[in-house]
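Render this sequence as a predicted structure.
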Amino acid sequence: MYDVLIIGCGITGAAAAFQLSRYQLKIAVLERENDVADGTTKANSAILHAGYDPEPGTLMARLNVRGAELAKELCAKLDVPYRPCGSLVLAFSPEDDATLHTLFQRGQANGVPQLRLLTGDEARAMDPNLSDRVTSALYAPTAAICSPWEYCLALAETAVVNGAELHLDTAVTGLEATEEGWLVHTSKGDFRSRYVINAAGVWAQAVHEMAAPPTFTIHPSRGQYFLLDKSEGNRVGHVIFQCPGPNGKGVLVSPTVHGNLIVGPDATPVEGDDVSTTADGLAFVRETAQKSVPSVNFRESIRNFAGVRSSTDRGDFIIELAAPHFLDLAGICSPGLTAAPAIAEYAAELLADDGLTLTEKENFICHRRRTRFHDLSLDEKAKLVEREPTYGRVICRCETVTEGEILEALRSPIPPRSVDGVKRRVGAGMGRCQGGFCGPRVVEILSRELGVTPDHIVQDKAGSWLLASQTKGG
């Protein structure tokens, strides 16, 4: 019998597991995919929003600002790439100017510090590649960027280090209320728990309706992106937004913590978790982005991708007890990445109010470090290679990722099970060639270390086979 069972291990579920692992509780996390952060969390804008966009008084507003504060602290403690670059929202017309004043007032009401309204010339002085058409801008210095999947992984790993159980490839198929709490049916057997947290992302409505009558509807929205080579990484120094509209914060242009440039997204209704990309959608992203930064060189694009946001008909985060001992964390669209640790704090408060005893551990571990060979000095590299020669074998030339780093990931609390799982942990395959050089070598290492033949190694999700063999499955 678990005290708390969490369904879903994207950023929301991982943050909930991290927060609850501070206490003397027996916790399990069920994830339907073969890795954490394998849904919306791995395919978003990677922005930690300042908090001026949500309507004052909403959960989004309250938890955005608190989450941004916590993210800065957690990224430092858990060794997650983080860059406090600030953001600019651009205006191109008198109507946009009025929108900026509204956002400024919202930000003040939400407690966002250091907001400033700038003229177009002041904005261009800060980011010279902005369009000459920009008439004014809202500057939010507390906005930041991070590595979203590394953030999620760090939270989940720390939860596991502190005693939480993670069950991958474990899809929830049904829920039954019991006298003690809940019986959770899954593709890998049944679990019993006193409390259940629904952090299932796009599938949160389906999970909710296993436990309670319908109270919300998820309307999945797909956003498509360009990821540009590092040659474009300094095109802008801030996160560049246009004025938000009914479909969200619009198309942005932003640096990434890995030195690239990301451009997107659009917003298109889809069914389920459809992450296909379209020529029309990408053309819209390109044309819209060039209104903000005309000089972006899209010939330097190295990858297109899409993510699906779990928007609902409520217009706010859904964080509430939907049934006895059953807590929904649903509709966690933007600014969900930013708000995640604050959502987890609030979730713990609600469970405590509902009777869950929260006794803090005396030995809670809240630190994490991983080796990034590329970032070491020459002297540090030499000493590391002398101590462990596998760090001297470069596997990914684009990102200078070594075999030692991959082996370190494979011996971590949540080891990768796929080529993309390695990429999310150490960056192999993230560079200009997108794994063209290092991919076969990563497969070789995974095959050797996992004790399986190469034809059993997948690119990402279950079934994404790279090699064909008559012996597969034998």
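Summary. The first helix runs from residue 11 to 20. The chain has a mean pLDDT of 96.
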